Amino acid sequence: SEQASNFPNEQLNLAKGWVREAGIFLRSHLDEAPQVATKSRYDDLVTNFDGQVQEELVSKILAHFPDDKILAEENGKSEPDFDLASSNFWVIDPIDGTTNFIVQKAEFAVMLAYYQAGKPQFGMILDVMADRLFWNDAEQSYCEDEALPVRWPELETSLLALNSYMFKSNANHLQELASKSLGVRNFGSAGISYVKILEGRILGYVSNLYPWDYAPGSILLSKIGFDSWTIEGDSPSLMGREKVFSGPVHLKDEVLSILSQSEL
Ligand code: IPD
Ligand code: CA
Ligand code: CA
Ligand code: CA
Q1: Which residue's alpha carbon is nearest to atom 2 within ligand 1?
Q2: Which terms are listed as keywords in the entry (predicted)?
Q3: Which terminus, N or C, of the chain has the lesser number of Cβ atoms within 10 Å?
């Protein structure tokens, strides 16, 4: 197909190596106490390792593709400074679940997404401690070499992942949604939440996310019959933080009709 022949296999194969190298780096430095700094508030943390992983990924990308653009969490800009509709660009979250990384040394991910001429091509999530890489080609998403099946889960037989801030602060309609499910879970990492959805352990995820949090997982999900929407039902814009529901396409209207009544 035209889609398959245009697929950026060179970028995909390079990125797999780079993300795996980032995982090896993080695992090999786990005994070292990270240098921790705060960002917007006391519980918004960043470490020297976030910066080092990001720098390494960015320099590898630009060495191979000097004209590509980059949107990366630790650059300090929440919006792209390039044209999203026409650029070849990478979205990078060097460590997703920094708090888990610091406190638990588990349940964190290295993530990236690649867009060609503004169109999503592949996402990549490395569950670092499990050393499992989730990635996609033009047709399917994979965990390592295993293709992930399309799924049609239903709310009343499934678990939901929710963002703990949203649940604590304005829970009414999240509770209504949660009460239609088997139960809720909170993993402290968008990437690990997406991995659980891809594996069929969780139906969906409701959270307040930046592009680097949702872009990789959303591209991976698009190959198994799932997608991501804002509470208004649009595709997330890649511009700053947005409230996002990621879940099965057949439940879009049912879930968003509950969430859209709320003031999340
Ligand atoms: C955060 C985690 C967390 C989610 C936050 C994200 P970070 O990413 O994914 O689970 O609730 O919204 O910002 O800062 O650890 O990369
Ligand atoms: Ca962060
Ligand atoms: Ca993140
Ligand atoms: Ca991060």
Answers
A1: 189
A2: Magnesium, Metal-binding
A3: N
Beta bridge partners of 185: 161
Q: What is the 3-state secondary structure (H, E, C) of 42-70?
A: CCCEEEHHHHHHHHHHHHHHHHHCCCCEE
CA angle 118-245-254, nearest 5°? 120
> Ligand 2 centre and the CA of 179: distance in Å?
30
Q: Check whether 95 is labelled as a binding-site residue.
A: yes
Classify residue 82 by its DSSP letter. Answer: S
Note the ipTM here: 0.98
pLDDT for 131-161, tens place per residue? Answer: 999 999 999 999 999 999 999 999 999 999 9
Structure tokens at 182: 């088997």
- pTM of the predicted structure, to 2 decimals: 0.96
pLDDT tens, 47-93? Answer: 999 999 999 999 999 999 999 999 999 998 878 999 999 999 999 99
Residue 179 has a CB neighbour count (10 Å cut-off) of: 11
